[in-house]
Amino acid sequence: MSFESKVYDAHRRGRLDAALVEFFLPHGDLRNIEGPMWDYKVGFCHPKAVMKEESLLTCELLHDIAGFYNAFGGYLIVAFPPEEASRFLRFTNKDDFDKLSDRYLRTYIPLESYQTKSMLAGKLANVLLIRIGKREIGPPIAYKRNSALRGDGSPVFKSDDIPLRYGSSTLIINQRHDLLVFAFGERKPDVGEVPSPLNEIDNNLPPRDPNLLEFIGRREYLVALWNWLTDVRNPVKVLTALGGTGKTAIAYEFCEQLVKARTEAFAKVIWLTAKSQTYAAILQQYVSTTRTDFTDVDSFLDSFLREIGCLEADFADFDQLDDKLDFAKEIIRDVPIFLVIDDLDSLDQDKQIELYSRIAQLFDQALSAKSPSRVLFTSRLETSAGANRILKVHGFGREETVKYTQSLVKHLDGALRGDLRQSSESMTFLTRQKVPRSL
Fold first, then answer.
1. 73, CA 20 to 30 Å: which among 39, 222, 240, 424?
2. What value does the mean pLDDT of the chain take?
3. End-to-end distance of the chain based on CA atoms, in angstroms?
4. Is 134 helix (H, G, I), strand (E, B) or coil?
């Protein structure tokens, strides 16, 4: 069994004892590697070590702990001179650590510790072995305030930063699209075991519209949406831009990634659209969409409730719109839903405003720790949403324009070759048939 596998097995079994300390520090020596589930913090024992201010030291250790929690969980092996023990008390007392975690993260990280003394590099040292639990599947935690400052004036972390243990380092992943997708998923370490696969999230995503040839660029918008899911106080987001700029394509790509991430953060991804036709570049014409789900607030709620799994009889007797809204609120308060309302501006302006205000309020009122349901609108108009709820989509940059044009030409060329081949085959078939002389 590899060293990584042994660490994974010890963590899975909840081990925290003297034998595990010896495992990480055999005969008082450091192992020459760090990994995704363990890290050494023993430099405090160096003869020339200068102890940092306690607030900075605390933030640096908390940063590594939060990174482990967002990834696989793991162990911190901390060693320090006995006379410096008071600096590490926050990590040995559960109540003190919970206060620290709540102060910077507004959440509680499962943490246990074991203390002993050991010879390290020929000197007696206090050894603190910290076991950090693994976060459940769902949105990763993010900092809620800035850390203490280093000597050069830079913070260890800033408010809204998302930490993740990756390899042998703790990274801030807010701009790492690949790691954000990973952080929302099952997060199984590669230790030679076959994980039990999770099913894709239940969804009603329609087939891709014919104008969505392939997704090009736009990573910054996907990153922004993944970051939004970590904001526990904002359940509403609006993708807004001029027509044809890519709002629907971005929303669809994000939903596909969310579904394939197999996260348990949401019970279902629901896509509802008011769009009745769209321009297909490859066909060079407007075509009908595969479906139109609603034309006003009332028909929207009917479609939404059906997709959640309600029977028509469950809401058919509601005479007032508010009764139907209250019914929907109770459901999404208990069942975490990711909802996309596509092409809001297909409706008349008055209906747009009413639908946005009603549904945004519905999700605000239903927001809870148990059910972090979210709703994403796409619209040309910015509605009445606040600045923190609007994500403006801009046109392609130069490089993206070139890639999109090349993709379009490739698809058009393929379509043209297909038409020519079909025409050629048809002519060959006709010339082989016996044609009456009278013709």
1. 222
2. 83
3. 82
4. coil
Q: What is the pLDDT of residue 58?
A: 95
Q: How high is the pLDDT of residue 211?
A: 56
User: Coil, strand or helix: which one is 377?
Assistant: strand
Supply the pLDDT for residue 6: 93
The residues that bridge with 271 in the sheet, in sequence order, are: 340
- Structure-token pair, residue 182: 């990973």
Chain Cα centroid distance, residue 430: 57
Verdict on whether the full-model pTM lies above 0.70: yes
The two three-digit tokens of residue 323, written as one number: 């009764």
